[in-house]
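Researcher: We plan to redesign the surface later, but first we want a full-length starting point. Tokens attached.
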């Protein structure tokens, strides 16, 4: 007979209850420890292909900040965003990318094909998020859109 044991029936229940309670507590311990620690400030490095005074660039910056805020990311509270403006100058893009990487961002963001191409050659250990690029597959940024 499957499941037979020489232990009394009540002992199985107590052992199962113990395992259930202990297992639940063990799972809750890391969560409780995390809840007591202050949230780590996340850092985002953004290289914009625009000049800082460009109205389109400023519209993108505003939209980016507002979208993050709607998702619960508040500058100065749980996120720091470092913007750099390169005016589509490849040498400046590379220099700004290296500068931002030196600050230890959690993620890098680019906003054009030119910027993304240069950042992709510099950014190796953190995620690179690109926006406003045309033909990301044809440009070689990703192999497929379903799983970039």
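Model: Full-length starting sequence:
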């Amino acid at each position: 007979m499957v499941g037979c044991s020489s232990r009394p029936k009540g002992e199985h229940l107590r052992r199962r209850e113990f395992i259930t309670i202990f297992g639940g507590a063990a799972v809750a311990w890391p969560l409780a420890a995390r809840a007591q620690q202050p949230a780590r400030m996340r850092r985002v490095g953004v290289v914009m292909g625009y000049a800082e005074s460009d109205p389109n660039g400023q519209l993108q910056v505003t939209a980016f900040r507002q979208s993050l805020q709607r998702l619960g990311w508040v500058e100065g509270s749980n996120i720091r965003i470092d913007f750099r403006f390169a005016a589509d100058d490849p040498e400046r893009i590379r220099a700004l990318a290296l500068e931002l990487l030196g600050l230890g961002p959690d993620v890098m963001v680019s906003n054009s094909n030119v910027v993304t191409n240069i950042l992709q050659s510099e950014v190796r250990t953190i995620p690179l998020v690109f926006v406003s690029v045309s033909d990301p597959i044809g440009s070689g940024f990703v192999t497929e859109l379903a799983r970039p």
